Amino acid sequence: MIFLELFWSFFKIGLFTFGGGYAMLPMIQSEMERHGWIQAEELVNFIAVSESTPGPFAINISTYVGMETGGLFGAFCATFGVVLPSFVVILIVAKCLQKFRSNQWVQGGLFGIKVAVVGLIAASALSVAASVFFPQGLQLSVFSSAQFWVSCGIFAVAAVLTKCRLHPIVVICASAVLGIAAGYLIPGVG
To answer: What is the mean pLDDT of residues 49-77?
Structure first.
């Protein structure tokens, strides 16, 4: 039963996600919480691992969630579920694109989808930021914790390195090194 649930959940996520892996985060979070597969706090770890491993984010996170909840066959079911809709849609779009490329209804629909994707990505960023910076919710005590300030520092360093157009791998590695150092040097961080 878990295998069918994994396939179906990730099939829906793959079918209704436009704009890449980050746009699917709200749907992933909703499905994971609805089924009780992972807690909201764990999702941040899944995102971090999925983002820092090679390959597309959607495939990585579906494989990771599937493996954690249903073992190797669960990973296969979740990954196949998330990939199948894109594969079918791309085949259909490739066949029909030339015919509908200049259609104003299609152009209008794509415009609306692009705007919605930006909103979904922003909502995901806020949700992930809240769980990283305010893991116990928004409380005044959070601002006096070392974990909050270390998180802000690592975020600032990552933002500056990204602005300097360093390769994302360098930014991820530098952030991991800073996190390891902070966890080693500062009690309660990590």
So the answer is: 84
